[in-house]
Specification:
Layout lengths: L6 H26 L5 H21 L4 E2 L4 E2 L2 H19 L1 H12 L10 H21 L4 H6 L5
Antiparallel strand pairs: 1-2
């Protein structure tokens, strides 16, 4: 079950990295956003754990069959992380914009909520690198390790 390559281990590594990344964010939140409540902080923790799991799960798809293109880890991870953060940013654009302005000031280069997309892409890049390095990628993740005798 925990042999290399393994989809279970990819998802596990992704979740652990999401928890560590969100934990670091929770430690930084009081300095940048002192008015953010515990529910928002918990939501970010659960959200980054979910992004880590999705990045780990997407490691099975290292080839796109429709456009006949290889999907290496350095493309797939940032795409998934950036895409998921872009969707969340669109849902909470006003709140995120207020938080960014509160932290960096109005008119600042870093006051745009679109930096949240870049943050997700960087997290996806790092998470997919670790998942691919330590748990493999592609169809072998599903057919080799996880379907052996239980």
């Amino acid at each position: 079950m925990f042999k290399n390559p393994s989809i279970i281990m990819r998802i596990t590594y992704g979740k652990i990295l999401g928890l560590l990344f969100a934990g670091a964010g929770i430690l930084i939140f009081p300095y940048f956003y002192p008015d953010v409540g515990w529910i928002t902080q918990l939501a970010f923790v659960l959200y980054y754990i979910t992004i880590g799991a999705v990045v780990g799960l997407m490691g099975v798809l290292n080839y796109h069959p429709i456009i006949k293109m290889s999907l290496p880890w350095w493309f797939r991870g940032p795409w998934v992380g950036g895409w998921m953060n872009m969707i969340l940013m669109m849902f909470i654009y006003d709140d995120l914009s207020t938080m960014q302005i509160q932290a960096f000031g109005a008119g600042s280069f870093l006051s745009s909520p679109w930096w949240f997309v870049a943050e997700g892409a960087l997290f996806g890049l790092f998470a997919d690198f670790i998942c691919t390095k330590y748990a493999g990628e592609g169809v072998e993740c599903v057919t080799n390790a996880d379907l052996d005798n239980p």
